[in-house]
Amino acid sequence: MDGYADGDGWQGWRPEEATAATSLLNCLVRELTEPRSGAASGYRLTGTGRTLTTGAGRWPQPPLAVDGLILDGFDALVVLAEEEARARTGVDNATLGAEMRDSRDVVAALLAARAEAAARDEKAVADLYLRSEQALLAGHRYHPAPKTRGGTVPQSWLPYAAEAGARYPLTLLGVREDLLGGEGVSGAIDALWGDAAPPGYRVLPAHPWQLELLRSHPTLAPQTLTALADGRIRDLGRTEEQAWATSSLRTVYLPDADLALKFSLEVRITNDIRRLWLRDLRWLQPVDEVLAALPPALSSLVFADQGYRTLAGHGEDGWEAYAVLQREGFAHRVAPGLTPLLAAGVSEGFDGNPLDRLTAEQAFAWWRRYVELLAPPALDALRDHGVVLECHLQNVLVAVDAAGLPGQVLFRDHEGVKLTTDRHASRLTRFGPGVPNPGVSPEYGRDRLLYCLVVNNLMEMAGAITARHPQLAAELWPTACQILSEYRDFIGVPHIPAKTNLLLRWLDADGGDSTYVPLPNPLAQVQR
C-alpha cells in the first residue's frame, strides 16, 4: 500500500497528476481555507470567499468543486492555488506555477524510470533500509512543488534520483593540503580513499551532480578551472564504491563502509537551495558536543555528524559548495537484530513496509510502541536539556524486529537542531554577536518540536495506519495521550503552528522566514 492515490477519487487523473495534486491540495486546504460556518460541508477559500468541496480520504481528494463547479485536472488546481494566493496576499508570483508543473513532470519522469526498470526485470533493492530511503515518490506532502528540479531535463538529475533507485560512484578530488578546510572528524573519508591522493594532497569526495551544477557558477567555475590547471586541485577519478542516493538527495549512503556523506547541491529542493551553509557548518561541532553530552539514554539515539571537510581558498562560496559532511553509520547505534527504516518511507509505503503485513491488533501495538520510543526522548531533550530535535519523518529512523514491530527510534541530522536560549545562552555567543546561531526561545522551541513531532510525524504515521485499519481511528490519539501523560502540561497547547509552504514560496521568502497556521492539536483535543 503506497498511499499515492488514496481512495477512488483520483480515477481519471494521470498518476503523476494525482501524486502532485495531493501535495498541492493539502497546502491549499491547510493554508488558504477555513471551515465553513455551522454544519456546512466543504471549506471557505479565504482569498476569494469561494467554497471548495473535496472528497474524503487520508488527504483531501477529488471530486473537487469550487462553488459547485467541478475542478478537473492538475492545471486547474494550479490556477485555483494561484488565484487564491494572489487574492490572499495581494501580490503576484510569476514562477511558482511553473515550479508546480515541473514538480508534476518530475514525478512523471520518475514513474517512467521505475516502469523501465520493471520492464527490464531489475530486481528490487534487497536492503529494506535503502528501499525505505528511496520510497518518497511524492516528496513533502505539504509543499506545493516538492519534486521540482529547477525545470532541468530529466537526463541531468535522474542518474542521482533516489526515487528512481539511483546509485553511482562519487568523484574524488585531490586538494593540496594547505587548501583543505573543515572541522571535526572526517577520517573515514581518508580510510576509504586516502591512498588515491598523491603526496602533499588530501582527498575530497564530491557529488557528481554538484560538480556538473558548479560548471555554470559565475565565480567558482573559472576559479576551479584555474586551480585544476595549476595543480592546486587534481581530478582523481571516480570511486569503485557505489553511493546510494537517499531521501534527501544530497546525502548518500555507502553500505559496505557503513558511512553517510552529505553534500551541497545548487538546487532548490522544497524551500531552499540545498547548500551546506557556513552558518550551519560552524555550529556543527558545538551542537554535536551538546548532543554527545546528553544522558546516555538520549545521546545513544542520535547519529553523530562527526565533521566535514571542504575546499579553502575559494571564498565563502567555495567553502560551502565543496563541503562534504561525514555522518556515522548504523554499527554503533542500531541494536542487534533490528532493521533500520526511514520513518517517512514507512508512512509513504514501499515493498516490504512492515505496516502492510500487520493485523489491526498488531498495527495498534505498532503505534503504541512507536509513540513510546519516539516522543518521550524528543520531549525530554527539550524539557530537560533545552535541545530541539528536528524529529520529522525524514530525520527519524525506526528500527524494527523480525515481526516488523518497532524496537528502537533514532534521530539524525544536526542541521535542524536548535538550542533554547535559557539553557545555552553562553554557548550561543561562541562566535560573537551578530553571528547567526541555532538559538531559539523556549516557547519557539516547544512550538517547533511539536510541529516536527506531532504534525510532521505522528499525524502522518497515524494516517498511514488508519488508511489500512480505519477501525483504529478513534483509538490512536487517546493511546498517545495516555503514553505521554507526564508531559501533559508541555504538549497540551490547543493548537500547533504548521509551516505554510505554499505561502512561503508564493512570497519567495527564505526557508528560515517561515510563517505558520495554527492546527488543532490532536493530543489536546483528546485531553479535553
UniProtKB/TrEMBL annotation:
**Aerobactin siderophore biosynthesis IucA/IucC-like C-terminal domain residues:** 365-497
InterPro entries the UniProt entry points to: Aerobactin_biosyn_IucA/IucC_N, IucA/IucC-like_C, LucA/IucC-like
Share an example GO biological-process annotation for this protein.
siderophore biosynthetic process
Classify the source by domain of life. Answer: Bacteria
Per the UniProt entry, the signal peptide is none
- Gene3D superfamilies (alphabetical): 1.10.510.40
Q: Aerobactin siderophore biosynthesis IucA/IucC N-terminal domain location, by residue? A: 129-281
Regarding protein family, the annotation reads:
Belongs to the IucA/IucC family.
Listed name of the protein:
IucA/IucC family siderophore biosynthesis protein
